[in-house]
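The protein record quoted in full:

***
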Amino acid sequence: MTINGSGPGHPSGDFPGGPLPLPQQANPTWMGQVQQQHYRPAPSGSGSQSGPVLPPAFPAARRGRSSAGVVGLVAAGGALGFLGLFLVLPFVLDSTGTAGFVVGFVASLLPLTAVLLAVFFIDRWEPEPTRLLFFAFIWGAVVSIAVTLLVQPVFSLAAGAASGLDHRTFAVTVQAPVVEEFAKSLGLLLLLFARKHFDGPVDGVVFAFTIAGGFAFTENILYFGRAIADSSTPSTELAVVFFLRGVMSPFAHAIFTGTTGLILGLAVRRWNTGMCILAFAVGLIPAMLLHSSWNSMGRNFLAQYLVVQVPIFLVAVLVIVLLRVAENRLTRQRLREYAAAGWFTAAEVDILATAGGRRYALRWAASMGRRPQMKAFLRAATRLAFTRQRILSGRDVPAHQRDELQQLAFIVALRAAVVG
């Protein structure tokens, strides 16, 4: 990787004669729309090479400080998860027995692994803090299950008779989709308190998949454990249930809740409280409908699975791919603006904003024993690009500009450590 070259800097602040014209490709994707009145140039980087040369081990050990919102959210999630265990664990154990619980727990790890690998793939461009992913998983695996157990009886009393459906049909096609999707998505709503890390549709999908993965994990323990406890042929019953839930539909809950996360993530781009609440309510509708559609499959299960559910899964994959492509293009454009201000060279932007370029950079750094430093540099550059996007959205501009200056200083330090 080349070291920073000098480049033309731009002054910051207001411009006489009206807003600064948008540069070419300022809106590279639908994820990065910028209004002309919000556009401002990147800070000048003409003197960025003069930063202190730090020991190579420094950036690898350094971690971004968590904001008060993140710390408070994780602490609250941990407390709620601990309290929820006193409701969820006895319920699951009573339904499965000890042997069923153990077998169900082990078997549930396989579909959970598939979902978490998907989360890793989606999230690897701009990784979310591990603490927030932990909150999301605990919310899904424990808190949302506890909320479901508490709300379902109330919902059944309030709406069961009015629906005109028999108890089982109501429970499967109405009660479960409504209550479970609401319980899971409450975690998404709470994650808005960590707004520096939840600021787009990719983040919404990542958090939604993690919550849903946790929920499905506990639910699978229950289903797999019951197959052991309640059947005269436990091995056969477990194989059937595992095939249906662990092989054919490991991503079902993720896709349901993922629609809510996607819609909420689109709304937080503008960060209007009313719009976010509305998006939360609107996002629940497709999640509940998809959930109800899945639960409604009966005798023609295989045909409906192939004709309806498989295409839905393929559409979900396509949406995720499009989100990744849009995220890459957005990163490239925002880093180009920093390159114009002298922080990066054009060649560095090509490396930082492409998957192939990043792999090349990591191999190059590994050959000199500096792979951790390079990995930190790549992540810092991506965070910087998305910080700039938040600035250009016109939301909390002064606070994000302070973050921008801190991140630029960190970039200089990381560069020195990578170059050695």
